[in-house]
Design brief:
single chain, alpha/beta, two-stranded antiparallel sheet, globular
């Protein structure tokens, strides 16, 4: 299966989860590639004003895994802008995850995941599973492992 892990990562936390996912999925025999979403105006908080400088082609994959940090208790503006500009995603498996600095999902993670799901579902797919990593939570490693297991369980 051809899997695209498309991430926006400012500090490297979201990317580190993507790399662990890539490793696990490749070990299972899948063709996996990590692609990064980048923005010229990285600090912008309004998705409508984001200027993307790298726009991965999601159509090249059978399955998509989207990863993003939480910013301002919401989905990062760069990932919001990227997902919003995507064409229809019908017939693709989609998994979403977010990372956040705060210790509890109720501090922006839940909202960001719901925003990701809503955008993806507007493109014609049902998001099969999701995950949240609360970076300052003492159970962070377990959260990362849970995301890896959930994503691996799609195949």
């Amino acid at each position: 299966m051809k899997i695209g892990i498309i991430v926006y990562s400012r500090t490297g936390n979201t990317l580190s989860v993507a790399k662990r996912l890539e490793e696990k999925l490749m070990a299972a025999g899948h063709d996996v590639k990590i692609e990064k979403v980048t923005a010229v105006n990285d600090g912008e908080m309004d998705a409508g004003k984001i200027q993307l400088s790298n726009i991965p082609d999601a159509s090249a994959y059978d399955t998509l895994i989207f990863g993003s940090p939480v910013r301002g208790f919401s989905l990062s503006a760069a990932m919001n802008a990227y997902l919003s500009q995507l064409a229809v995603l019908k017939e693709k498996n989609v998994f979403c995850y977010v990372t956040q600095a705060f210790p509890f999902p109720s501090m922006g993670g839940n909202r960001a995941i719901e925003q990701m799901k809503k955008i993806c579902e507007s493109k014609g797919v049902k998001v099969s599973k999701t995950g949240i990593v609360n970076w300052s939570n003492i159970r962070r490693e377990k959260m990362i492992v849970d995301i890896i297991e959930k994503a691996s369980g799609l195949f």
